[in-house]
# Entry
Amino acid sequence: MFWDKVEIYRRQKNLTYRTIARAMGKAETTVSSMRQFRTEPRISDGIKIADALGVDIRDLAE
# Structure
């Protein structure tokens, strides 16, 4: 569910996962693995993802 919402906002804002990874200070492969295996990120990473998308973390967690 988290990654489904990330995908919706990512497409709306026309961002790439590379852009999100850079904003998080992570390698693109790290974000790709998290997404591929549908793992819930740590709170700190979730906040960075939300910040990169320009949304509140609650928007991704609901």
